[in-house]
Amino acid sequence: MVKINGKEYQYENKQLSAVLSELNYDRERVAVEINEEIVPKVCYDITILNDGDIVEVVSFVGGG
User: Any idea where the domains of the chain sit in the sequence?
Assistant: First the structure.
C-alpha cells in the first residue's frame, strides 16, 4: 500500500508521474514529498513508489 494525502492506494511499483496523471494532478502545478523528502519535478518519471511510501501532494492555486 502507498498512502497519498492520507488515503491508501495500490500504487506500489508504479511511476510517480503515472500516479499523478491517474489522480488528475497537473504535474506542473504540484509539489510532491515522499517519506518527508521533496521530489524534484525532473525525477517524477524515474521515481517508483514502494510499498509503505507516504506521499504528500500539494497543489498550487492562483488567485488574488
Answer: 2-59
**What is the full per-residue pLDDT of the chain (64 aa) written as tens digits?**
999 999 999 999 999 999 999 999 999 899 999 999 999 999 999 999 999 999 999 998 776 6
Give the phi and the psi of residue 58 in degrees, each rounded to 5: -115, 125
Q: CATH homologous superfamily for 2-59?
A: Beta-grasp domain (3.10.20.30)
Q: Count of CB atoms within 10 A of residue 44's CB? A: 18
pTM of the predicted protein model? 0.90
